[in-house]
Amino acid sequence: MANSVLYTIAVLGAATPVFSSLVNRAAAEDASSFSAQSFDYIIVGAGNAGLTVASKLAADGTTKVGIIEAGQYLPNDALIDVPSNVGLNNNNPKYDWRFNTTQQVHLDNRTVAHARGKVVGGCTAINSLIFDRGSKEEYDAWAEVGNDGWDWAGLLPSFRASYNYTGMTEGQQIGSGFNISDENTQSHDILGSGGAIQVSQNTYYSDISVPYVKTTNSLNITINTAPDSGDPVGIYNPPASIDRKTGKRSYAAAYYTANLNKTNFVVLTGAQATKVNFLPNKQDGKIVASGVTFQVNGTSYVVNATKEVILSAGVFQSPQLLELSGIGNATLLQSHGITPLIDLPGVGENLQDHAMSAQMWQVKPGVKTWDQLRINQTFVAEAALQYNTTHDGIMSSGRSVLTFTSFKTTAGGNDTEYQGMLSTLEGWLNSTTQTPLQSKQYDIQKRWINEETAPGIEFLMVPIGGFTRTRVANETSYMTVLTVLQHPFSRGSVHINSSDPLELPNVDPRYLSSPFDLAALVQGLKFINKLVSSAPLSDLIDTRVDPATNSTTTQDFEQYVRASLQTIKHPIGTCAMAPQNLNGVVDSSLKVWGSANLRVVDASILPQHVAAHLQSTVYAIGEKAGDIIKSGRSTGATNNARSGDVQSLLTVTAIIVMVTLVTTIL
Ligand SMILES: Cc1cc2nc3c(=O)[nH]c(=O)nc-3n(C[C@H](O)[C@H](O)[C@H](O)COP(=O)(O)OP(=O)(O)OC[C@H]3O[C@@H](n4cnc5c(N)ncnc54)[C@H](O)[C@@H]3O)c2cc1C
Ligand SMILES: *[C@@H]1O[C@H](CO)[C@@H](O)[C@H](O)[C@H]1NC(C)=O
Ligand SMILES: *[C@@H]1O[C@H](CO)[C@@H](O)[C@H](O)[C@H]1NC(C)=O
Ligand SMILES: *[C@@H]1O[C@H](CO)[C@@H](O)[C@H](O)[C@H]1NC(C)=O
Ligand SMILES: *[C@@H]1O[C@H](CO)[C@@H](O)[C@H](O)[C@H]1NC(C)=O
Ligand SMILES: *[C@@H]1O[C@H](CO)[C@@H](O)[C@H](O)[C@H]1NC(C)=O
Ligand SMILES: *[C@@H]1O[C@H](CO)[C@@H](O)[C@H](O)[C@H]1NC(C)=O
Ligand SMILES: *[C@@H]1O[C@H](CO)[C@@H](O)[C@H](O)[C@H]1NC(C)=O
Ligand SMILES: *[C@@H]1O[C@H](CO)[C@@H](O)[C@H](O)[C@H]1NC(C)=O
Ligand SMILES: *[C@@H]1O[C@H](CO)[C@@H](O)[C@H](O)[C@H]1NC(C)=O
Ligand SMILES: *[C@@H]1O[C@H](CO)[C@@H](O)[C@H](O)[C@H]1NC(C)=O
Ligand SMILES: *[C@@H]1O[C@H](CO)[C@@H](O)[C@H](O)[C@H]1NC(C)=O
Ligand SMILES: *[C@@H]1O[C@H](CO)[C@@H](O)[C@H](O)[C@H]1NC(C)=O
Questions:
Q1: Which ligand 7 atom is the nearest neighbour of the CA of 258?
Q2: pTM across the whole model
């Protein structure tokens, strides 16, 4: 891979000087001027949701929004911008917090790497570009657990507002396995138009796409021509967050760039929030946030918010900040010497993730996959020239074949197998203590399985090697298929490990703690083996590499899943939006229970998982949160106590502040 990466950087570097638009200032000076200003809203985290809600709040040109981001602003960075470099910035501290889970008991005590974006744009700068939606039933379930307005119909305008969809053209259809009509028949009333994030179809497909789609169809999974309509079941060619005009990743930093000249939209980068501060007195029995303490290069600062503080630090760090600020399970907080302000035991609980298991096959000689970028320098040179001149082709493309289906389908008509999975689930549910929220969620999840309304499993075909344990060989090409669980029954947690705000919290997803999750994944692996051994796909495939060919029994597959399980990095739920008596953390206006003006706006508020990759849903959450906050819905008390100070500070000239701590260039 190294050669293609360097080549790519050279190409982009030639076109646009790296970091050309960065303003370098002394960190301390900028942090001081940031903290001396008065903001209406302080938002922690310039990621997927944070930048979306910030842009919305600042759109009137007067509401003053300050955003604190630990990472840097990295425009014109090939490891972010070039779609074929996907994944290469993961586990690099310049872009990634590099979380690792705690030892996972059901994975032979392994830890699992869990990338999280640490850069302006958050995870949207390091993700795999897939841009899709879940099913109507799944979003409706959020309302079903007690959140008025948070259903498919209530979210659709917010989904649409965030992006600008460009459909598939004649040329893009070739080799995809899908027709233009498959992709463009869905009503444009449900797609995005005019929003900040550019979303389009790919322009390159490997030799595997067409036979893979045909073979999937032969196993009773049909092409879905309208996957964004609230029914993602079937096989389809998902859009990607790629700007077709430039061939570059389009991500949440677009909101930053668009607001660069606004004096009421100020982002402080290289600054890590450590605590939310509160006024000494409650209002109507609720605590009132006054601002945020943050650190730049070891020095602490305070910045005030006259209206609200909004946490958009993501699924692992929004609950961490709540706990550091005295909001959470009182017993747990006290054990770390933190005085509880609100005893809210749901904080950090209800962690749900999409666990995945990857299988890899060697393909027959001559079958062209994305491995060409690794093994064929002529191909790399051609691809780079094409990318440089017309901004399309393989280097401008992402993953193109998604399948969402039900367990009945993966059981392939074997009712014994299907009933066996259901009784595994029943037995486990009978023997497990559940929180009130879990019981409600499990009833919904069982309904989805039985009625086949929301797809329980996803298969993602990736025409390249390198996702499994076996090292890829030079001169060899591969096909990888990821089996991804959509509605896990396992529940994990994220909690602080100490009162030191710079120490990462403990992330414990408790993968496979429900035996149903293991059974469902194993069933998925077997289904994919059936697919791979069926024509016409089988004509392209050589030997299976992972798991080794001698893995054949259910037990072998179980062992493989335990030893190799990874995450597709869609954690949710740790500040769940739910009624307080159901262990909720935020109400349906996203305000923390017991607070007057502290909200959480990011993927941690999803109460329950959806069968989709998450970015489009998180953009929608940011959009909807902005509407709710602007409409003043249940805004309650604001922080009026300091409005005198505010007036005197309004004369301070607002500036766009950018702090660069990392100056090394690749
Ligand atoms: C490797 C990877 C691949 C993925 N692939 C896809 C995909 O193909 N398609 C898809 O739809 N989704 C994908 N996802 C998931 C999706 O990108 C995320 O679920 C979503 O973007 C999360 O948004 P968020 O707003 O909750 O958090 P983030 O976007 O992570 O934003 C949180 C921000 O807060 C900052 N922050 C955290 N703590 C602090 C602090 N204390 N002080 C200051 N700043 C702080 C972080 O640096 C970050 O910028 C992927 C995710 C990853 C990691
Ligand atoms: C941050 O601190 C380090 C020393 O710990 C120093 O070298 C660096 O210059 C500081 N950065 C800024 C921007 O002040
Ligand atoms: C922020 O609030 C604190 C505490 O109320 C106050 O001491 C400080 O002066 C305020 N800072 C600004 C810049 O208004
Ligand atoms: C997580 O584990 C990886 C691989 O062992 C390591 O490189 C990384 O530094 C770890 N992350 C942190 C924050 O320590
Ligand atoms: C996992 O770790 C626990 C506690 O450290 C230990 O008791 C157990 O034997 C370990 N299991 C395996 C499979 O290593
Ligand atoms: C939306 O995409 C179209 C191309 O499909 C482009 O012409 C238009 O300028 C884009 N609109 C915005 C607001 O980005
Ligand atoms: C910001 O201002 C600069 C200088 O006036 C201008 O070149 C640039 O286009 C502006 N950017 C935006 C997003 O308006
Ligand atoms: C709160 O934390 C304590 C200590 O970790 C734990 O024993 C208890 O079960 C937790 N309470 C709830 C309701 O989760
Ligand atoms: C390498 O790429 C070139 C250009 O696309 C192609 O003509 C050639 O067949 C490839 N070589 C191999 C061995 O696949
Ligand atoms: C890419 O384009 C630039 C000019 O924009 C040129 O200098 C460079 O040589 C090109 N690189 C390739 C690989 O075509
Ligand atoms: C496909 O569906 C048909 C009709 O429902 C059924 O008879 C057949 O067994 C299914 N085939 C597979 C491979 O699941
Ligand atoms: C159906 O599944 C059961 C349980 O996994 C297995 O024993 C049996 O061989 C399967 N039947 C067929 C026809 O594949
Ligand atoms: C689960 O409990 C229900 C009701 O108590 C019982 O009918 C059922 O047989 C149990 N199922 C299993 C698999 O234990």
A1: 13
A2: 0.93
Q: CATH number, domain at 399?
A: 3.30.560.10
Is the CB–ligand 3 distance for residue 6 below 6 Å? Answer: no
Q: Is residue 336 annotated as a catalytic residue, yes or no?
A: no
The first and second tokens of residue 231, run together, are 């029914």
Residues with Cβ < 8 Å from 637, sequence gap 6 or more? 283, 284, 286, 288, 596, 597
The whole-number average pLDDT for the span 371-398 is 96
Tell whether 228 is covered by a domain.
yes
Contacts of 51 (CB under 8 A, 6+ apart): 67, 120, 121, 122, 252, 253, 255, 256, 622
Distance from residue 428's CA to the centre of ligand 13 (Å): 9
Ligand 5 contact, 108 CB (< 6 A): yes
* 379-385 average pLDDT score: 98
Mutate to test the pocket of ligand 6, among 166, 169, 245, 392 (most ligand atoms within 8 A of CB): 166
- Residue 664's pLDDT is 24
- In the chain, the number of structural domains is 1
Distance CA 513, CA 105 (A): 8
Who contacts 308 (Cβ-Cβ below 8 Å, separation ≥6)? 40, 41, 42, 289, 597, 598, 599, 629, 635, 638, 639
Report how far residue 137's alpha carbon sits from residue 132's, in angstroms, rounded to the nearest whole number.
15
- Are 552 and 529 in contact, with CB atoms under 8 Å apart? no
Q: Please answer whether residues 275 and 325 qualify as being in contact, where contact means their C-beta atoms are separated by less than 8 angstroms.
A: yes
117 lines ligand 1 (CB under 6 A): yes
Beta-carbon-side half-sphere exposure of residue 249 (alpha carbons within 13 Å): 28
Read off the amino acid at residue 262: K
Total H helices, total E strands in the chain: 21, 24
Give the length of the chain: 666
Least confidently predicted of 97-111, 190-204, 531-545, 631-645: 631-645
Asked if omega into 505 is within 30° of 0 (cis), the reply is: no
CA distance 284 to 594: 10
Tell me, rounded to whole angstroms, the distance of Cα 345 from its chain centroid.
Answer: 25
Of the pLDDT bands very low, low, confident and very high (cuts 50, 70, 90), residue 462 is very high
Q: How far is CA 154 from CA 97, 147, 148, 194, 400, in A?
A: 33, 11, 9, 20, 29
Domain for residue 31, yes or no? no
Question: Is residue 665 scored above 60 in pLDDT?
Answer: no
Q: Which ligand is nearest to the CA of 662?
A: 2
- Res 537 pLDDT > 50: yes
Share of the chain above pLDDT 70, in %: 90
Domain boundaries, position 417: 78-255+351-501+511-631
Q: Considering the domain boundaries, does residue 313 fall inside one? A: no
% of the chain at pLDDT higher than 90: 84
Q: Is the CB of 419 under 6 A from ligand 13?
A: no
Q: Whose CA is nearest to atom 14 of ligand 8?
A: 345
598 in any annotated domain: yes
Between 20 and 307, the higher pLDDT residue: 307
Q: Please report the atom of ligand 11 found closest to the CA of residue 409.
A: 14
Please tell me the distance between residue 61's alpha carbon and the centre of ligand 8 in angstroms: 45
Q: Identify whether 570 is a catalytic site residue.
A: yes
Token digits of residue 295: 């650190």
Residue among 44, 101, 127 to mutate when testing ligand 1 (max atoms within 8 A of CB): 127
